[in-house]
Amino acid sequence: MLPVKMVFADMDGTFLATNKSVPPQNMELLDVLASCGIGFVPCTGRPVSAVPQQVLDHKATHYAVGSNGSVVYDVQAGEPIHVVGMSRRAVLDLYESVRGLNVTFDVFSDGKVYAERARYEAMSSYGIDEPTLLMLRRVRIPVDASVPELVERARAVEKITCFWLDERDRRGLELAIERVGAFSSAHGHPKNFELQAEGVSKGFALTWLCEHVGVGSADVVAFGDEANDVTLLEAAGDGVAMSNAIPEVQEVANHIAPSNDDAGVASYVMALLGVAD
Predict the structure, then answer these.
(1) CATH hierarchy code of domain 88-197
(2) What is the pLDDT of residues 36-75, one digit of tens each?
(3) What is the CA angle 221-222-224, rounded to 5?
């Protein structure tokens, strides 16, 4: 009997190195998982389309979770199988409340991320680390449309991400989120708030997908490093924090793995399976 049936892993700060590359050992792990019939599930705050293609294309990857649990995607079928959209009224209410702040207001919808062009261009002055900034700019589509126009066009608003400039903007954003009160909120980066529909999280998606494929959550191992990974680790039978994880994540973890830059996911799972990495 294998000790695990599915592996869920956050991407940034967990499965990916700090420079956003995929460590070779982690790709080797996917080969091992495929040979054992163990499914690998990228579970990210990114849209699924922004998961590294080599991970999505791997035969171990049948499903992926995007937008912090708002979307569960069947990779082989090339389509979402579960989408939970946000309240459009709540999104627009929040937008009106923060228009005067120096924050981004990135709209995740229909598998893509859209940003008002001025906010997209201002993001480079927010003190975001360079590897993350490059990834954010690559993933987002700058548009001349306003957020209300983007919301109106969307089939579903999956997620909103707001990066902030300084402490005044952070506090103003936090107060606006509390006032609207219709979201699940967590940090995926020290300088952002990530918002989904109320009750939606990575842990919510793990539970849904396990039920969908008939795997008990007790037979799942999950990895994470940031606040938006807490529910993921709590929902898994074995929740594993990276050694580079924030204290909040390490506190809820069953175990601690080596850091993302040391391919900690591969090291932990290879040891679990009794395979030398």
Answers:
(1) 3.30.1240.10
(2) 999 999 999 999 999 999 999 999 999 999 999 999 999 9
(3) 155
